[in-house]
């Protein structure tokens, strides 16, 4: 077997096997993070009071808060299908006190198929209401080319960033969003999809890299075997 092909095949085996190991490690990291999220969601409910919280305080934790919905501070997140039906996520500000406001993803609302800009009617509790849910960094993100679909001032947007919305509205927002889970009589749907770890994709890539490594190894052995037979035959004939 010639030195150059041998080195190239050996490097290919090592590189592809290393990438397979890397994908395996990535999958394990994702599974560990998923386990942490599930553990946080099983932890006792945090009753949010009249103070500022950080993301680290509440992310993925179940929370409970009482306040008043600000119906003039609502954003409808577009392109959020449910069972193949188009619809919106209704994200509304909840005023806990004059100094503290939190965004609540109240649930899913079907789109009016006759008018893309129309919002189907839904109920909003008057006065103080208690909201329970899971605290997350953002209400939900969808693929977006550029930022025109999420420009400030739009009622219907593709995405919503908490910090940007705080600057836009001058609201003293907490740095997280509550994915509401309790029923407040508004007829919005809240069967939130469970967050996927993404480890399956890493396992798929891992299998591809290990498969390539195996193919290269078999190819190298086959070439070495044939080369050895040729050299042996040449020696016998000499």
UniProtKB/TrEMBL annotation:
Record keywords: Cell membrane, Membrane, Transmembrane, Transmembrane helix
Cellular localization per UniProt: Cell membrane; Membrane
Record membrane topology: Multi-pass membrane protein
InterPro entries: Surf1/Shy1, Surf1/Surf4
Coiled coil: none
Membrane-spanning intervals of the chain: 203-225
GO cellular component: plasma membrane
Family: Belongs to the SURF1 family.
Protein name: SURF1-like protein
